[in-house]
Amino acid sequence: MILIALADDHKLFAKGIEGLIEEHPGFEVVGVFPNGKELLEYLTDHRVDIVLTDLNMPIVDGFGVLRHCRKHHPASKVIVLSMYDDEKIFKEAMELGADAFILKDADPDELIFTITEVFEGRYVKNFERVIQQANQGPFFDAFREKYRLSKRETQILKMIAEGHINRDIANVLSLSVQTVETHRKNINQKLQVNSLMDLVNKVNEMNL
């Protein structure tokens, strides 16, 4: 079980994140806090695997959370949640010891995969990945809705159809190869295909 604590002063957003995370087996949200101070007080007496923290919070902000966790709770991985796809902010968070950086308006599956990657130590720290979260490009909504694909899955699907192998896809999207492989399994299941040829034919039928 991956134990997760969340600090964010926007109650509706925090509640939505909590619900999203707890839909997934193996994840448990052990605490939701309105500021970094209350989060850090909780960490004093409780084990947490993953800390999700907003940067802009009262009393103790996300940068304060990063500094404190790196010094006093090095076993806890910290994922920064931000509204801003700003490279300066990204670099500052990385320098303070952030394990990952994700935009608040990223696709929900991006957060779930990021938590898994960070917990397993295979998250790729790259600002290009943040930019891709902000600008996923054009997608065919009818195709996505029909097969219930996420933006990331549609992006990977297009690259597969174009002939890219897993390692190439991972490099372009700043993902680990294992994450790409997991996405491919999910895509095959959603599209109900068993081979690369079937998958490509399905894409061609929909003119993706």
Structural description of this entry:
- By secondary structure, the protein is of the alpha/beta class.
- It is built from eleven helices and five strands, in the order βαβαβαβαβααααααα.
- It folds into two domains: 2-134, Rossmann fold (3-Layer(aba) Sandwich), CATH 3.40.50.2300; 141-206, Winged helix-like DNA-binding domain superfamily/Winged helix DNA-binding domain (Arc Repressor Mutant, subunit A, Orthogonal Bundle), CATH 1.10.10.
- The chain has helices spanning 11-22, 36-45, 62-72, 87-95, 108-120, 127-134, 141-147, 151-161, 166-173, 177-191, 196-206, and strands at residues 2-7, 27-33, 50-54, 77-82, 100-103.
- Helix 2 (36-45) runs parallel beside helix 3, helix 8 (151-161) crosses helix 11 and helix 9 (166-173) packs across helix 10.
- It is elongated and about 55 Å long.
Summed up:
The chain has two domains: 2-134, Rossmann fold (3-Layer(aba) Sandwich); 141-206, Winged helix-like DNA-binding domain superfamily/Winged helix DNA-binding domain (Arc Repressor Mutant, subunit A, Orthogonal Bundle), CATH 1.10.10.
Topology:
Blueprint: E1 2-7, H1 11-22, E2 27-33, H2 36-45, E3 50-54, H3 62-72, E4 77-82, H4 87-95, E5 100-103, H5 108-120, H6 127-134, H7 141-147, H8 151-161, H9 166-173, H10 177-191, H11 196-206
Parallel strand pairs: 1-2, 1-3, 3-4, 4-5
Helix pairs in contact: 2-3, 8-10, 8-11, 9-10
